[in-house]
Design a protein that fits this description.
It is built from 20 helices and 19 strands. It has 552 residues and is an alpha/beta fold. The strands form three sheets. Strands 1, 2, 3, 9, 10, 11, 12, 13 and 19 form a nine-stranded mixed sheet that branches. Strand 16 (298-304) and strand 17 (307-316) form a beta hairpin. It is globular and about 70 Å long.
C-alpha cells in the first residue's frame, strides 16, 4: 500500500475513493483511457419553434405535447448550488422567480475558503448578509502571511487571503435567505438537458433519489408550493434565462468548449491536520525545492478552525506524461515534514484530504453559443489561470453581473450577442497567462533547477520595493497597467540576465502574443481613467478589464 493510501484511509468520508474518481477524470483529460479523449455529450438543443408562448394558454391543450403540463415557468434557473447560491439569492431577493438545481445536497464543504476581507464587502453591500451574519461565517483570521522562495528572501504582507470563510455556514445562511425570498431549491437533482427556443429555455432534470426530486421552497406562494409538492422524478422548467454555475466539469461547458484540451492546468493536493507545533502563521506562496521531473512545486499554508491546512500545487498542461493526483500526494507527504519543520508525519492527525485539478483556457471568459444562457463562477473562466478556485472572482464581478443580468431581464435582451457583453475580453486576465507559463516547465524542457525560484524571488522583491499599490493587487489576482508596468521596468533594470533567460524559455511567439494583451490593458486603463464616453456594459468592461475595480 502506498503512503497516500495508508494515510487517506484513516480519514473519514472515503477520500481515497474520491481521489481515484478525480484521477480518472484527470486521466481522461490527458487522453490516457482506452478510448482517448472522449467527445463531450450533447446536452444543449435548439429549436426555432415556440411552445406555449402564451402564458394564458398554459398548459397546452394537447397533453401529449412537450413540455409536460406540470412544467414550471420562472425567470431564471441556476444550475449548481455551491457558488450558484450567491447569485440565485441576490436575484430572488430582487424579485425574480428563481429555481436553483443542485446535483447533491446544497451544503458547503467543511474546508474554509481563504479570501481577503475587502473582497467580502459586496455580500453586505448587496444585502445578501448583514455584517453580523458575515462575521459568523468567518471561521479564522490571521496575520501576517509569508511569501518565500527557496534560496531567496522571506517577505511578509498583511490582510491578503488572511480570512478563512466557512462554506458550510455561508451556504446555509444564503440557502435560508434564498428560500425566504421565494426561491425554489431542487436538491439531489441532476441536470439532463436544456432546449433553447425563441421565447424561453426548457431545462430538464432527473431525481437521484429514485423518486420525487428533493424540492424545497416556494416562499409561501401557493401555486409554486403545489408544484413543489406534486412534481415527480423528472422535472421540466421553462425559464427566460439559465445560469450555469456547475464548474469546470459542467456538461454545458464541455459541449461549448468542444474536445479541445485546456491550455493550462493547476494540480492541487493537501490536507487539514492537527498536531503542528505552531499554527499562527500562513504562507501565501512558498517553495522549498527547485524544478524536478518537469515541474516546480509551490506550497500554501493557512490556519483553519479544524487545524492547519497545507496545499502542494504545480502548473502544467494536459500532456499524457503529467503526474496523477495520487503521485502528487506521494510527493506531498514526502516533502511536508521539511516544509513545516517536522521530524516526521507521526505527530499529525489528518482531518480532511483536499485534491483537484483546475483546467484553464486562453479563450476565457467563456461566452455562450446559444441564446438565454450565461456562465458564472468556475464555469465562466473569469478566474486567473494562476488561481484554483472561483469564489474570489465571483465576488469581484458580482456587482457587474447582477446589474447586467437584471438589465437583460428587464429589457428582454437575452440573446447570445447581448449576454456575451457580460463576459467580454479582459486583458488583465489574458496577461496572466505569461505568468503561468513562467511558473511551469514544458515536458522535456531543460531548465536550471533554481530558474523559477530565482525569477519569482526577483519579481516579488521588486514589487514589494515598489509598494502596496504594485504588490497587493497582484496578490489578489488583479493585474493593473500602472502596477504591471512599474514591476516590469524595475525587474528589467535590476535583473536583466533573468529577463534575457525568459525569452528562450517562453518562446518569442508567446511573448509577442502577450505584448498584444499588455497594450490592450493600457488602452482599457486609459478608457477607464479618462472617462471616455461609452455606454454600459462597455464602461464596465474597461473598468474590470483594466483591473481598476480593485480596491484595498
Amino acid at each position: 500500500m502506498s503512503l497516500t493510501a495508508d494515510l487517506l484511509s484513516t480519514i473519514p468520508g472515503q477520500p481515497l475513493a474520491g481521489l481515484a474518481r478525480a484521477d480518472r477524470l484527470w486521466q481522461q483529460l490527458r487522453g490516457l483511457d482506452d478510448q482517448g479523449v472522449k467527445p463531450p455529450i450533447s446536452v444543449i438543443y435548439e429549436s426555432s419553434q415556440n411552445l406555449a408562448a402564451d402564458p394564458d394558454n398554459w398548459p397546452p391543450a394537447d397533453p401529449d405535447n412537450w413540455p409536460p403540463a406540470d412544467a414550471l415557468r420562472v425567470d431564471l434557473v441556476v444550475l449548481g448550488g455551491t457558488l450558484g447560491i450567491v447569485m440565485a439569492t441576490a436575484l430572488a431577493q430582487a424579485g425574480w422567480r428563481v429555481v436553483l438545481m443542485e446535483r447533491g445536497q446544497l451544503q458547503g464543504r467543511d474546508q474554509e475558503w481563504n479570501i481577503s476581507r475587502s473582497e467580502l464587502a459586496v455580500l453586505v453591500e448587496r444585502g445578501l448578509l448583514t455584517a453580523a451574519e458575515l462575521e459568523r461565517a468567518i471561521a479564522s483570521e490571521f496575520n501576517p502571511v509569508r511569501i518565500s522562495f527557496a534560496g531567496g528572501q522571506e517577505r511578509w504582507v498583511r490582510d491578503v487571503l488572511n480570512l478563512g470563510v466557512s462554506p458550510a455556514i455561508l451556504v446555509a445562511q444564503l440557502r435560508q435567505k434564498f428560500l425566504a425570498a421565494g426561491g425554489i431549491l431542487l436538491e439531489q437533482t441532476q441536470f439532463v438537458s436544456l432546449t433553447v427556443q425563441p421565447d424561453r429555455v426548457w431545462v430538464q432534470g432527473r431525481s437521484l433519489l429514485g423518486g420525487p426530486t428533493g424540492a424545497t421552497g416556494a416562499g409561501g406562494n401557493a401555486a409554486y408550493g403545489d408544484w413543489v409538492t406534486a412534481h415527480q422524478a423528472t422535472v421540466t422548467i421553462g425559464a427566460r434565462l439559465v445560469l450555469d454555475a456547475m464548474g469546470h466539469q459542467s456538461p454545458i461547458v464541455r459541449q461549448t468548449r468542444g474536445p479541445a484540451k485546456p491550455d493550462g492546468v493547476c494540480l492541487v493536493v493537501g490536507t487539514c491536520a492537527t498536531g503542528y507545533p505552531t499554527n499562527d502563521s500562513a504562507d501565501l506562496i512558498a517553495t522549498t525545492t527547485g524544478i524536478q521531473d518537469d515541474r516546480q512545486y509551490f506550497w500554501e499554508a493557512f490556519p483553519a478552525q479544524a487545524g492547519r491546512t497545507t496545499y502542494l500545487f504545480c502548473y502544467g498542461d494536459a500532456h499524457p506524461s503529467r503526474p496523477s493526483l495520487h503521485d502528487l500526494f506521494e510527493d506531498y507527504f514526502r516533502l511536508l515534514p521539511a516544509y513545516q519543520n517536522l521530524p516526521s508525519l507521526e505527530g499529525l492527525q489528518f482531518q480532511r484530504a483536499l485534491f483537484g485539478f483546475f483546467p484553464a483556457f486562453r479563450q476565457s471568459p467563456l461566452q455562450p453559443t446559444v441564446d438565454r444562457l450565461l456562465f458564472i463562477g468556475d464555469s465562466s473562466g473569469l478566474q486567473s489561470p494562476l488561481s484554483f478556485g472561483g469564489f474570489g472572482a465571483l465576488l469581484r464581478h458580482l456587482d457587474r453581473l447582477l446589474d447586467g443580468i437584471t438589465n437583460a431581464l428587464q429589457t428582454d435582451r437575452l440573446d447570445r450577442a447581448h449576454l456575451s457583453l457580460l463576459l467580454p475580453y479582459q486583458p488583465n486576465l489574458s496577461v496572466t497567462w505569461l505568468f503561468q507559463q513562467a511558473m511551469r516547465v514544458a515536458v522535456g524542457q531543460q531548465l536550471p533547477s533554481d530558474r523559477i525560484n530565482r525569477l519569482l524571488d526577483a519579481v516579488f522583491g521588486e514589487m514589494a520595493a515598489a509598494g502596496d499599490r504594485v504588490l497587493r493587487p497582484f496578490l489578489q489576482d488583479v493585474v493593473q497597467f500602472p502596477a504591471l508596468s512599474i514591476a516590469l521596468a524595475r525587474v528589467a533594470i535590476a535583473h536583466p540576465a533573468l529577463v534575457a533567460q525568459l525569452i528562450p524559455q517562453l518562446g518569442l511567439p508567446a511573448l509577442l502574443d502577450w505584448m498584444r494583451h499588455y497594450l490592450a490593458l493600457g488602452l482599457y486603463h486609459a478608457g477607464d481613467r479618462l472617462a471616455l464616453p461609452a455606454r454600459e456594459p462597455v464602461r464596465s468592461a474597461w473598468r474590470y478589464g483594466s483591473g481598476n475595480d480593485w480596491h484595498s
